Amino acid sequence: MNRLQRWRHGPWAVPAVSGALVLVAFLAARAIGSDAAGDALLVAAAVVAGAPIAVKAVRALAVGAVSIDLLVAVAAAGAVVIGEHWEAAAVTFLFAVGHALEARTMSRTRSALAELVAVAPDVAVVLRDGEQVEVPAGAVVAGETVLVKNGAKVPVDGEVVGGTGAVDEASITGESVPAEKAEGDRVYAGTVSRAGFLQVRATGVGEDTTLARIIHRVEEAQDARARTQAFIDRFSTWYTPAIMLLALAVGLVTGDVVLALTLLVIGCPGALVISIPVAIVAGIGRAARDGILIKGGEFLERSAKIDAVAVDKTGTLTEGRPHLTDVLVLDPALDRAQVLAWAAAAEAGSEHPLARPLLAAAADAGLATPGLPESTEPVPGRGVIATTGGHRVLVGSAALLAGEGVQGADGAARAAGELAAAGRTPMIVAVDGRVAGVVAVADRVREDAAEMVRRLHAAGVRQVVMLTGDAPQVAEAIGRATGVDEIRAGLLPEDKLDAVRELQRQGRTVAMVGDGVNDAPALATADIGVAMGAAGSAVAVETADIALMGDNLLRLPEAIGLARRTVAVMHQNIAVALVTVTLLLAGVFAGGVTMALGMLVHEASVLVVIANAMRLLRRNPASRQEAAGTGSSGGASGLGAPGTSGSSCVTSTTSPIPVTSSRNSTTSGGRISRGGVADA
């Protein structure tokens, strides 16, 4: 299809032809002095612009709907019949211009979806039989190795199996800074390599990629109707017939057909009809550009009412990856490096999550540890017993050591208790029946966690509650670091559900932020369920009311702020539309407002409504500041494990935030206020 054909089928073809005929009619009447020719051309202009309007009106009537198009069609036809040719041409031309503006605006506000479609890759370079073969992106088979060179789009979802590089993931997560990629890291279709060379094992292709799911979700969301939109639709269903009856009654009572037809035109709530959809589409489109997927207009509207946010701890407020923080030596015959080495040797055969930070710390310190222990005996809830190099090594709680009759267990228990009180997770290390020392690990608070809480409060959220299964002292340490208003610790998944329900009974509109697994009941019950770091997660993208594609916590207050701005624009647009119609109707009865003038004012109100909604497409100043790297880290820096030096790990002097271990702690449901007072 060439440019002319595209223009002919575009929204501006009809108003352009109709406007040209109106202009020629004006010239014919003024320059040539032929009123008959001018009237014929005006009728032709009305037919050109009015025919599509009449077709839409008939189609609506066929399904039992009385549309706004019917008002204009009847008014234009009546104007032609009574000889008001200029009014008929002007009304239909202006209404056609309004339709074209609406179509153009909706296309513009859907630009985020168009941009997502545009970044979808077309081709992929696949390694087949040792050779590089270029194939369509949809023809890649899961499990194949795809080569991604500098500057190329990533054609599939997959895992890096070779090479290093930096990938611009803005189309998925909204983050402007390229993410460093190495072996084992995930990459997503539609992202762009900015440096390096990557070999990627394809795990998702075609419609099974994260990008395809995002496009599908945004498309559905922009078409979904908000509650306010549903109300406007119901209002229009009754309003349009009411205006027709009013015009008929006025015409019969006064005998003034022109006045009746003018009422039909003036009563068109064109700005009212477009006021909600254009705002919803613009708001959801802006969110999608920033890596925030909102399920639909209803959820966008509901998010504007959020005044309480319940947040999971592990993996949300914290990184979810424990790090070694302390090594205390209790046996004078050993040094710190040896205590750490014994702990790592015992944990080498353990599957417990806390084994990994010990092994990583030993490797970072350059400590040589033997391979797998000769035997490993996990003791549920207490620790692990291992035999390595002919030595019996215990790592775990004081209860484990007491049960095994280890010497010096009481002193080790006191040291472990002090570490636990400071918010760490301690593990006592014993070798051949003697206490060697205590090691402790902790999870790090995300750098932007405290800033997120501050911005939530600034966005109008009155209460931020942390829900966690961890021990109260652990939860309290995180609460102090992040500034949450309330802490509920020692919770099972059903307890988190009860906590959300309790907030709702207090009259709160609750958003629950979690990982969607153990928090699933609470996420489903909350007014708005928010999934963090949903990139690559099909379940999160499809089921969450709001999915934050990246791990940036600041996207949450940004989403709430955008929802509030969108609803404010919706209310402003409704006010503009209703005030315009009211003033015009008053002007008609007072005299002075003609059919053409009324339609001109109507279209001006449509432009105002459109311009107001288009403001949502601009990025919020706070978001621009964040993207420029000037946002606050929230004061969380310095929390977490200190670095190691030499071959030993020194005791931390910071206040790291711990991850709870079932080996050496027992928790019970409880509540801690911001002041840290337990209410078990």
Automatic annotation (TrEMBL):
Topology in the membrane?
Multi-pass membrane protein
Q: Which Pfam families match?
A: E1-E2_ATPase (PF00122), Hydrolase (PF00702)
Indicate the principal place this protein occupies in or around the cell.
membrane
Which residue ranges traverse the bilayer? 12-32, 38-55, 62-82, 88-106, 235-253, 259-285, 574-593
Q: Where is this region: Disordered?
A: 624-680
Q: Where is the protein situated, by its record's location annotation? A: Cell membrane
Family affiliation? Belongs to the cation transport ATPase (P-type) (TC 3.A.3) family. Type IB subfamily.
Q: Which PANTHER family match?
A: CADMIUM/ZINC-TRANSPORTING ATPASE HMA2-RELATED (PTHR48085), CADMIUM_ZINC-TRANSPORTING ATPASE HMA4-RELATED (PTHR48085:SF5)
Write the protein's name: Cation-translocating P-type ATPase
